[in-house]
Design brief:
rod-shaped, seven-stranded mixed beta sheet, single chain
Length: 607
């Protein structure tokens, strides 16, 4: 609502009979005001305000004339007649020139660069200092302003129109927690903290307490409110209004073409600051905040199970083993994988091989609370447990030290829980790493062996299996035992009468006097372990790289004739069923082209 004010000059030390008349659009006239006044000092005429209203009523407040104008008013005439002893002194009859001044109450809009941070998050306190303080404590100034008008030069001061200025919130979000993976706070995401105010008319020094609205303690022409942002994704509306004595209605601030400040500036109403959207989306606003389509950068699958809004609200992670930080991630850049390592050795080992793979994944370490919330081994609380949009699940990669024992005749160095060999998935269950067993296993330097085991087990969480012999089918066709075992081909296998032993051709390599063969697995029976693997009698065996022979593989349980046998081959890559020992440095390890092209870090993969 706009209000018009005027000011005029009259000789001082005289009493006047003051009349105000509205000039109407039909050439008519209407008296609005007729009362005596006294001007004590020269040149001062009471400030006045005209409210364009259909009502005609008028009233006078000391030191100020307030008039409500008919809706068809086209002008105003004010006549002051000096009065002497009750009779008019015509020589002091003055037709006052009226200067109409259109006044507005304006308020700052949030700048496009404002993307909220949490002022209450210990991980981000340092981010609320210096130039970044306005990201945690944005400021909003409201002020009365007249339109520019031509006024006589002797009128050197603005009209002293003032009132009680009030700031108050409209709707505000109350997101769970503070960031996508941290906090359990409840309540509004924006507050007014009296202790943070810098304007003494809003909160005198020493004031405390949080409020939803704040009014100046005196009549003012402007004031600046400090708002506290308590969440990284909060949204809300802020209003300002002014109450002026003698005015029937409050003046409400304009913010551009609207009546509220947006917290933050969010012109498409999707709950994300426009400036951040443009910064990650090539200067364009984002249409789908539930999208999850980071380009795979060499992988067939996109996304990381985190929505655009989740990545905007951000995550706690460990900048070092003990230092927690917060960050927003890029929903259109690399895929993000957060990992928990209960030993520092695991974190450095992950960086030595896994993080070096050129597959468009960024790894960030988290602590147990940031990863799962409760029990670090069994709890599957989601990394995005505070998400306010979407229905996906994102889980941290959890690396837990645990003694694993043996599988048949081999020590188990690592194990990815929560999936099977045929359908591994990143479902929140941990990866167990037997740190002690790796340290006592000959063949690889400990640091390289640890890094290779972690990369391998993480590969299972990313939906990769051990490579298997694929010709002529998944692996092999069951045949009856031939007279000459050398006739068993690479795609065939034989079930012995005891139903616990199979004959199958395996490739092998020699390392330090040990023959390390490919592995035969009974499909669909993950607990049916191989107890022994030995070369079958009377079959050809030629030592050396890349050779193969028929082996007898004895299992712990009965093998049914209908079961498939998989042969897990060795490609000298990360996903081999056991480490290829001649690769003695971390730089020699990588995913195969096939594996790196289909790594998927979600529970459900999408193209």
């Amino acid at each position: 609502m706009d209000y018009d004010f005027y000011r005029a000059e009259l000789p001082g030390n005289l009493s006047y009979s003051l009349t105000a008349t509205a000039l109407l659009s039909n050439n008519g006239r209407q008296t609005l005001y007729s009362q005596p006044i006294t001007v004590v000092t020269p040149g001062s005429f009471p400030d006045g305000r005209f409210d364009f209203d259909e009502e005609y009523d008028y009233f006078r407040k000391t030191g100020r004339l307030v008039l409500n104008l008919p809706w068809d008013t086209v002008g105003v005439e004010v006549e002051a007649v000096a009065v002497n002893g009750g009779s008019q002194a015509s020589q002091h009859r003055v037709l006052v020139d009226v200067v109409l001044v259109d006044y507005h109450l304006l308020m700052d809009q949030s700048p496009e660069s404002f993307a909220p941070r949490s002022a209450l998050d210990p991980a981000e306190i340092s981010g609320c200092q210096g130039a970044a303080v306005t990201l945690c404590y944005p400021r909003y100034r409201a002020w009365l302003i007249p339109e520019e008008v031509d006024v006589p030069p002797q009128w050197t001061t603005h009209f002293q129109v003032a009132g009680r200025l009030k700031f108050e919130f409209g709707d505000r979000s109350e997101h769970p927690g503070v960031a996508t993976n941290w906090g359990n706070q409840t309540g509004p995401d924006y507050t007014i903290d009296r202790a943070k105010q810098t304007d003494p008319n809003l909160a005198p020094p020493g004031s405390t307490g949080k409020v939803d609205a704040l009014t100046t303690t005196a009549d003012v022409r402007e004031a600046t409110l400090v708002v506290t942002s308590e969440d990284y994704g909060g949204v809300g509306f802020l209003y300002a209004s002014m109450t002026i004595d003698g005015l029937a209605e409050d003046i409400w601030a304009k913010v551009g073409d609207d009546g509220e400040a947006l917290l933050p500036l969010d012109t498409n109403g999707n709950g994300i600051a426009d400036g951040w959207e443009k910064s990650v989306n090539g200067g364009q606003l984002i249409t789908d905040i539930n999208a999850d389509a980071e380009p795979p950068q060499g992988s067939f699958y996109t996304g990381d199970a985190l929505s655009v809004h989740d990545e905007y609200r951000g995550f706690h992670f460990l900048e070092s083993a003990t230092q927690t930080k917060w960050t927003r991630t890029d929903p259109f850049g690399t895929r993000d994988v957060f990992y928990y390592a209960d030993k520092n050795d695991f974190a450095s080992a992950l960086q030595n091989i896994l993080a070096q793979q050129p597959v468009g994944i960024t790894y960030r370490r988290v602590n147990p609370q940031q990863a799962v919330g409760k029990d670090k081994i069994l709890d599957r609380n989601q990394l995005d447990r505070n998400s306010v949009i979407g229905d996906r699940e994102a889980h941290a990669l959890k690396l837990i030290d645990k003694r694993l024992g043996k599988e048949g005749m081999y020590k188990i160095l690592g194990e990815a829980k929560g999936g099977d060999q045929k359908n591994p998935t990143n479902n929140g269950f941990p990866v167990f790493i037997d740190h002690a067993a790796i340290q006592t296993t000959p063949g690889l330097p400990v640091a390289v062996g640890l890094a290779q085991v972690i990369a391998h087990e993480a590969g299972h969480k990313f939906h990769r299996t051990h490579p298997v012999r694929t010709q002529p089918s998944i692996c092999c066709t069951r045949i009856e035992r031939p007279n000459n075992l050398n006739d068993i081909g690479l795609g065939q296998w034989v079930l012995d009468p005891n139903h616990k032993t199979v004959l199958v051709r395996l490739r092998f390599y020699q390392y330090s006097g040990e023959r390390i063969a490919e592995r035969a697995v009974v499909a669909g029976q993950p607990k049916n372990k191989a107890k022994s693997v030995r070369k079958a009698k009377n079959t050809t065996l030629t030592d050396g790289e890349g050779t193969h022979a028929v082996f007898r593989v004895e299992f712990t349980d009965t093998v049914q004739p209908a079961n498939e046998i998989w042969v897990e081959v060795q490609q000298q890559k990360i996903m081999d069923w056991t480490a290829y020992l001649p690769l003695q440095t971390a730089g020699q390890w990588s995913f195969s082209d096939l594996d790196s092209g289909v790594l998927c870090v979600r529970i459900q993969c999408q193209q």
